[in-house]
Amino acid sequence: MSRACQSSRKAFTLIELLVVIAIIAILIGMLLPAVQKVREAAARSTCANNLKQLALACHGYHDANQAFPMVDGFTRGWGMVPRLLPYVEQGNLYKQINFNDNVTCANMAVVRQANLKVLQCPSDMEAGREFDDRTLPVAGCGSGSGAPDGSAGRFRGYGTSYVGSYGDGFNNIPTEPYAGDGARVRYGCGGCASNNAGAPTAACPEPGVGYGGGPNHRGMFNYLGDTAAIRFAEIKDGTSNTILFGHTIIKGTSNSNIWMSSTGSVHGTSLPVNWIVNTCMNSAGLWVDRCNIPGGSSWMGRGFASYHTGGVQVSFADGGVKFIPQTINQVTFNALGSRAGGEVFDANAF
Question: Is 60 exceeded by the pLDDT of residue 6?
Fold first, then answer.
């Protein structure tokens, strides 16, 4: 018998190898969407858990203080989240805060630079990243040094994926439809303002201040800190119908998004769900060029938004967490923003 007949075939032909590679590629192509769906489901579950923790922390705070936490506004610049730290297993960090000091104080840098998982959405690439360009709502420090520790005269710190609700207060971008008096009529926005004036007008009988602040504040948190803290008794529309915390994307907000400060701590329902994502996602110079909208400003990012497909998750004042689709009727969405607007709507509309 010849040597050729005795040899056994030990290798693939080129065609067979290409067929195997093609089959593997097809299998990978079939598996990737399934893996992505599993990852997204896990991310949404994590977000729901984070929002649940923040809502329950508010309940714990209310039990101890007979009201929800305040926001300091521009006095010292603290938001409401630092006051919730003992209720999210961050008691040691809480003990390092002196609420009589400004957020800019050097001895508060350890707080600004704390990296808290409960404030991070796994789907947000900016979550868990330390920034060095954060702006804070007060200048200087009441005691000690208030020198910036970031770049270009700004501060280092971590952003947050979750913000409190200022409710359905008006948006002041003059070039988009969800602003001013017209928004009150068309979309049910509360607060509103006629030419940003504080006096009542026919179109705006209860004028507000931007970001839902001022004496006619209709949400759960007032970033100006010039009204009393909200109590359960003041949620007359029902705790299961009033948004407490919602989702944001860190890159789509201004650089005042830093977890412990007042000005980056609240968003509202006056902009549709995912408005900033759907408007700016494919723009050149994302977030920097204001999506090429004349007159655009950081207000564009003050709505609730997420990278979760099709909507956002929010926690309600009763502690429940729901997914709000971006197709929700805007009047209904604004009704969910106000705590005592007296609106009548179908709670199953979304």
Answer: no
Instruction: Say if residue 194's pLDDT is above 90.
Output: no
Element of type H or E holding 58:
helix 14-65
In the block, tokens 């977000």 appear at 47
Coil/strand/helix, residue 116 = coil
**Are the CB atoms for 180 and 300 separated by under 8 Å?**
no
Pull the structure tokens for residue 332.
């209904």
Distance between CA 326 and CA 20 in Å, rounded?
A: 43
The helix or strand, by DSSP H or E, that contains position 155, with its residue range, turns out to be strand 155-158
Q: What is the mean pLDDT of residues 212-226?
A: 86
Q: Which of 153-167, 174-188, 243-257, 297-311 has the lowest mean pLDDT?
A: 174-188
Plot region of 180 (φ>0 → left; ψ -120 to 50 → alpha; else → beta): left
| Per-residue confidence (pLDDT) for residue 288, from 0 to 100 | 47
> Of all helices (H) and strands (E), which one includes residue 323?
strand 321-325
Who contacts 105 (Cβ-Cβ below 8 Å, separation ≥6)?
98, 141, 142, 143, 144, 145, 146
Residue type at 277 in one-letter notation: V
Distance CA 245, CA 107 (A): 29
Cα(170)–Cα(269) distance, integer angstroms: 9
58, 162 Cβ separation under 8 angstroms: no
Nearest-angstrom CA–CA distance, 276 and 293? 12
Lowest mean pLDDT among 4-8, 19-23, 155-159: 4-8
Measuring CA to CA, which residue among 159, 144, 133 is closest to residue 98?
144
293: how many CB neighbours lie within 10 A of its CB?
15
* Strand spans (E) along the chain: 130-134, 155-158, 162-167, 243-247, 266-268, 311-316, 321-325
Sheet holding 162-167, edge to edge: 266-268, 162-167, 243-247, 311-316, 321-325
Work out the percent of the chain whose per-residue pLDDT is above 70: 84
Closest Cα partner for 264 from 82, 122, 129, 121? 82
- How far apart CA 37 and CA 30 sit, in angstroms, is 12
Average pLDDT over residues 111-139: 91
